[in-house]
Amino acid sequence: MSEIEREIASQPACWATAVSRLPEVADRLPTPGQRVAVIGCGTSFHIARSYAALREEAGSGETDAFAASEFPSGRDYDAIVAVSRSGTTTEVVRALAAVDRARSVAISAVPDTPVPDAAGRTIFLDFADERSVVQTRFATTVLAMLRAHVGQDLSPVIAGAERALAASLPADPSAFDRFVFLGHGWTVGLADEAALKMGEAAHANAESYPAMEYRHGPISTADPNTLVWVIGSPDEGVADDARAVGATVVTPLLDPMAELVLIHRTAVVLAKARGLDPDNPRHLTRSVVLS
User: Fold this and answer.
1) Residue range 248-279, pLDDT digits in tens
2) Integer CA distances (angstroms), 223 to 174, 179, 235, 244, 270, in order
3) Model-level pTM?
4) Residue 8 in this model has a pLDDT that exceeds 90
5) Strand ranges (DSSP E) for the chain?
6) What is the rounded CA–CA span in Å between residue 196 and residue 41?
7) What is the distance between the alpha carbons of residues 269 and 184, in angstroms, rounded to a whole number?
8) What residues contact residue 176 under an 8 Å CB cut-off, 6+ apart?
């Protein structure tokens, strides 16, 4: 079994641990009403986008998400949340260096690294750290903790993830040469993350869109070799339109985070079918550290 398969399987337990530890760290996270920026790179950026949308939907305050390299340091935020699994991502360190240290909190898996050292407060989820280059459980564990912090009950989400681990895959990924993931609201970030996982682990041709945007051009590439996977609850008409042009459509039966677990499994199955090592994709390292 690959490292990523072990890490995917451990997600429900990691989420439960994060929720149980939330009372210990809740005072380090943004409070309701604060204007917040959330930054990260790659997978962490996609999780930042999901959290930003969730926090606003919960009525907790205006929340923006940025790729760390694009963070507008001149804007006035009450709090800056930085997410970095390794704690070494250069763009995140640089972004934190440009803001008031007292307003920042870093969420990482590794202490004594540059990102947490640059922040005023830290939250370590070391139990969710990973050996695989491809990130799965750390990112979803961060999101589980943040969902709980805005008031969501994670018990049914964790149960859904257990079902996602036991369920048959909804489609054989080796039957397709194009993968499209569609989200709505906070699941747009998860759709982006799903496409990234398929690309990283399996070198798949994968795209992601806000669901209603799919009709505005991208649907022109859909055909019987296309798998369209809907995450969340966008307009059902989008799925109908994708089917009408010959695509196979997967519609969600689980919470979006549990659905992402199914997608993680799908990416690994496709990687192995293609003779690839899903733990060590070409051209990638665990962290991007710039000179």
Assistant:
1) 999 998 999 999 999 999 999 999 999 999 98
2) 15, 11, 20, 9, 19
3) 0.96
4) yes
5) 36-40, 63-67, 79-84, 104-108, 121-124, 178-183, 206-210, 226-230, 248-250
6) 12
7) 26
8) 225, 226, 227, 248
